[in-house]
Design goal:
The chain has helices spanning 2-20, 25-35, 38-46, 54-59, 62-99, 105-158, 180-190, and strands at residues 49-52, 163-166. By secondary structure, the protein is mainly alpha-helical. The longest helix is centred in the last third of the chain and has 54 residues, at 105-158. It is elongated, with a radius of gyration of 28 Å.
């Protein structure tokens, strides 16, 4: 861990300069290399690192697709209720726009009040629907991601990985460090 901290710290301190001038890459590498002892270099060369593409795991998961379908089914009545209220609101607005010039003051005031009331109801229902469905989706995804994390831990221990990174945090990786297919297969076998 000390070795990794040293490397990360060294790269953070020296890396910004390397982006400013390409000619400093040699100097940057030399500075990093000189800050790492021979023992640390040996430890680093023996370190086994894997990378996981979580987005790929989620996108390719039958379990996630099933969860999404169940979520849609669960929230379909609420969604349809929002759509019906929205349709009624739009119809009232169109009716008002179309007939406002020929309506009596009393009719116009009544319809305006109905429009305002249905708009408030619609906004409340939309917010409620969005919040409830978002919370439920987050709960389901967290359960799935916990399974992914457990599979990564099992695989990393079995295959003796020292470190597993998320691909979003890695600007470049060689395919040989990608453990995504192994994790996807393990998840599929447990489904």
């Amino acid at each position: 861990k000390n070795l990794l901290s040293t490397l990360v710290l060294a790269s953070l301190v020296v890396a910004p300069a390397s982006f400013a001038n390409k000619n400093t890459n040699t100097n940057t590498n030399a500075k990093i290399e000189s800050s790492v002892s021979t023992t640390e270099k040996k430890q680093l060369s023996q370190m086994r690192i894997g990378v996981l593409d979580v987005r790929s795991i989620i996108d390719g998961s039958d379990e996630v697709k099933t969860l999404q379908e169940a979520l849609q089914k669960e929230f379909k009545p609420k969604f349809e209720e929002v759509q019906a209220l929205d349709k009624g609101f739009r119809e009232n607005v169109e009716k008002f726009q179309r007939n406002k010039d020929v309506m009596s003051e009393k009719e116009r005031a009544k319809l305006e009040k109905e429009i305002q009331s249905s708009q408030q109801q619609l906004m409340t229902l939309q917010n409620q629907y969005a919040q409830e469905s978002s919370e439920k989706q987050q709960q389901l995804m967290q359960k799935f991601l916990d399974k992914v994390k457990k599979e990564v831990e099992v695989y990393a221990k079995k295959e003796k990985y020292d470190l597993v990174l998320i691909s979003d945090a890695v600007p470049f990786m060689d395919d040989k460090v990608d453990i995504t297919p192994h994790i996807a297969k393990a998840l599929k076998n447990k489904a």
